Amino acid sequence: MTAVVVEDLYMTYRAPIRGSGWKETLSSVFNRRYREVPAVQNVSFALAPGEVVGFIGPNGAGKTTTMKILSGLLHATSGHVRVLGYSPWQRRSDFLRRIAFIRGSQPVGGSQELTVLDTLQYQRLLYDVPPADYRRNLDELTELLDLKDLLQRQLRALSLGEKMRAGLALSLLYRPEVMFLDEPTLGLDVTGATTMRRFVAGYAERAGATVLLTSHYMADVASLCPRLVLIDKGKVQYDGQLDQLAAKLSPYKLLRLTAPNADEERLKEAGEVVEASNGTWVLRVPREEVARTTARLLTELEVADLAVEEAPLEAVIDRAYREGVG
Ligand SMILES: Nc1ncnc2c1ncn2[C@@H]1O[C@H](COP(=O)(O)OP(=O)(O)OP(=O)(O)O)[C@@H](O)[C@H]1O
Fold this sequence. Notes:
It is a peripheral membrane protein. The protein is 37% helix and 28% strand. The mean pLDDT is 91. By secondary structure, it is α/β, with parallel strands linked by helices. It has two domains: 4-11 and 40-246, Rossmann fold; 251-310, ACT-like. Chain A, domain 2 (Alpha-Beta Plaits). The protein has twelve helices and 13 strands. β6, α7 and β7 form a beta-alpha-beta unit. The protein has helices at 21-30, 63-70, 93-96, 116-126, 131-144, 160-172, 190-207, 218-224, 242-249, 264-270, 290-300, 313-323, and strands spanning 4-16, 34-47, 52-56, 78-83, 99-103, 178-182, 210-214, 227-232, 235-241, 252-258, 272-277, 280-286, 305-310. Strands 5-6-7-3-8-9 form a six-stranded mixed β-sheet, with helices on both faces. It is globular, with a radius of gyration of 24 Å.
């Protein structure tokens, strides 16, 4: 059984055309015209239960639209979508109890005057969480998300990182089996983002949850997602393993070499020098020549340390966005 199935998904928004200037604005009130904005075109992919998959693409690629369709907030123009066997747009309560859609840009909705604890209790009633499960889950989430000092505070008084932790607790209180995470580390500091990643990975593993995650931060993708679905202009450009994408798009590897007495001119013959400081060099070497170049450097130089690294993921993804995956 697959957790999420998307086949031939299309979504077109109907956006009103508004004129500029008061005359045109007034006339567009009485004489409405619309234009069709294609957001998702022929998207297909499937997620197995327990898979954690990165859903990435440049701004406006169609990621949030797809997630809104998968969580039932939007009805697709056409195509076939199933999440845990349900049609999401029907928004049946038993479906909603098994999924969570968490957005870094709006981590907690509802009244901002309520305290975190009140909101959690309200959530318990809304999602019909049995009292014993509620207490157990709340204790666990309080510990893992460091919520103790936040429980009595009003939502409106929380920082972005604190709101995100509260938002996660609200969504995970009912133990969803599928999570759609839309930029969960948006605006978080380094520690906040690391906590978030660790928490998501831990929850997915413990609960066996399926996770589809969008992020513009490659550190999220690299640390959480062995598989990527890359979309651009509403179409899937790549669906496969992250490391295979890196191998395909980056014909180079980096050799990080510490050799205090090395001659830079000699190193330039081995590869392009991209960094040099205090006896440590980073050379960019064509992938197919890495083994030969490494062996040569080790025999010719007095090498204190040598490591072979993949090109940074940012560079790989930037290339995928600019030039396509091909
Ligand atoms: N309510 C709407 N009405 C009209 N067009 C929309 C609407 N929402 C999104 N779009 C358009 O649909 C396309 C896809 O938008 P979407 O928000 O899904 O992209 P995204 O990949 O999530 O982008 P980002 O990374 O910037 O959040 C864009 O061209 C966007 O302008």
